[in-house]
Each structure stands twice: as structure tokens, then as C-alpha cells.
Amino acid sequence: MVQLMKNAFIFALALMCFLPTSLAAQIKLKSVHDVVEVELLPGWRMENGQHMAGISIKMLPGWKTYWRAPGDGGIPTTVNWRGSKNLNSAKILWPRPEVFRTYGLRSIGYVDAVVLPVIIRPNSNAPVKVNASMHFGVCEEICLPVQIKLSGMLPSVPGPKNAAIRASLRTLPLTAKQAKVRSATCKFQPSAEGIRLELRLDVPPLAGRSEILSIEPGNKNIWVSEPKTRRSGNIFKASALLVPQAAGTAISRNNLRLTLISSKSSVEIFGCD
């Protein structure tokens, strides 16, 4: 079990002077220890020599944490693996998230609980000793930034496949081929505010309701507005504003990562023509 750091930061206290006394009193009782439990799931060594592990995040009912691209109302998740041994690289696989609104801002993430599968590439066939730090946020009426330590041993021999990790893997986004995406085209137009992006995806409707689109530009120095979208048959169109935050920042269509998300499915598309 991962132990939450005693000195976890809680920026919600800074908001207390703007809140009613009764609500401020409730916030004083909130801490990350009360709200969230995090566990490193050891997982199993795969036939290709890589290791499938997982990070389990369980929260109080109604609380949520955030996806890889959290939206304007979310807090991004980061993991620093540098204290680990026999670990060459680690990649988090993100299950299909939910979309919700917080004070009018769109957020993308997970409610109550989520298991994040992690593919780890060891340097050798020996066990992997994880000693990493993780930063993320949990929110309800208030938001609590969380800083924790991830630690544990990942065995070097094949073992039983953890049911929670396997269930999470089944909710990963479809590939463009699996979703029968026929084309993804984009057009960039300079404007007074930034660069207007027009997207046209030829993709059948996803199972479920309420399709939304997340646009990741592949550059942290580029802000992307919430897209305006519309669908007609298999054609899904979107328009968004891209605003570079630093002079000389380049925008590449090949680096765009487009994720179409519904209530039951999702698909990832990399780049556009």
C-alpha cells in the first residue's frame, strides 16, 4: 500500500476566506488522507520482457481525479520514476475517462475510482524496485493537490494477471483502425487570437452517448480551447482555437493527438492530413 506523504499540499485552504463559514469549517476537516487511497499493483511480467503494473486510485464517493489531458477545470497527473531501480522506462495507459463540468469549465477524468495500467520496461530480467513520486489532484466541491510516494517490488517471473488491471485494459481507447476511421483532415487559419483549427473526421458514431473531442497539440506551450463539434452521419467536425504561449512555438499537424470520447467508448487518432 502506498503511503500518502504527510506534507501533502492543500491549496483549498487559500479559498476559505471567500467561502461561507459553514463550508469553510467542512474544508478544515478535509485532507488527502480522508479522501483518497493509492496502491501500486505489482501486476505481471509479460512474455516480451516488459512488465504490466498498475496504479489504483480509490476516492470517497463523488470525488474525482483527472485524465492525461484534464481540460481547463482539471489538475494534470505526473509521475517521476527516477528513484526506481532496474527501470528503463514507464508508460501510463489511460482508460476511457468521463467528462464533467466544474463551474462552467470542462474537465475530463474519473469518478470514485480508477486503475491506471503502466507498461514498465526493465533494464534487465531482474525484479524492478519502484521508488517514484506522483502528483495529481482530487476534487469535489474543493480540490486537493496530492503528492505521494509509489514504492514496491515488481517480480521478474510470470505470475497471475491482476483482475483490476485486466478490467482497466479493456477500457483503453480503440485505435483508428479498430474504430474504422477512414480519414482525419485538418486546416489551420491564422486569426487575431491565435490559430483556428478546423477538423474533419470520417468515423462512424461511437457506442454510447454524448461524443466529445479532446485535442492535444503535442506541445505544452500551446493552449487549446474546448472544441465546438457537430456530427452528420459518419462525418464529425470540430473547430478550436490554438494559442501558442511562447514566441516561436511551432504547431505540427503530425503531433496532434485527437481523442473522441463517448459514454461507452473512445478512439485515439494521431495526426491529420
What does this 3D model show about the protein?
By secondary structure, the chain is mainly beta. Helix content is 7%, strand content 48%. It is built from three helices and 18 strands. The protein is globular, with a radius of gyration of 20 Å. Residues 1-29 have low confidence and may be disordered.
Major sheet characteristics:
6 strands, antiparallel
The separation of the N and C termini measures 46 Å
Computed structural class = mainly beta
Beta-strand share of residues: over 45%
- What sort of overall outline do the alpha carbons produce when their principal axes are compared? globular
Q: What Rg do the Cα atoms give?
A: 20 Å
Query: Number of helical runs?
Result: 3
Enumerate the spans where pLDDT stays under 50 for 5 or more consecutive residues: 1-29
What's the helix-strand series? HHEEEEEEEEEEHEEEEEEEE
> Using DSSP, what is the number of strands?
18
Assembly state (oligomeric): single chain
Secondary structure elements and pairings:
Blueprint: H1 21-28, H2 32-35, E1 36-45, E2 51-59, E3 64-71, E4 78-80, E5 87-92, E6 98-102, E7 105-111, E8 113-122, E9 128-139, E10 143-154, H3 163-169, E11 183-190, E12 195-202, E13 212-216, E14 222-224, E15 228-232, E16 235-244, E17 257-261, E18 266-270
Antiparallel strand pairs: 1-2, 2-8, 3-7, 3-9, 4-9, 5-8, 6-7, 9-10, 11-12, 12-16, 13-17, 14-16, 15-16, 17-18
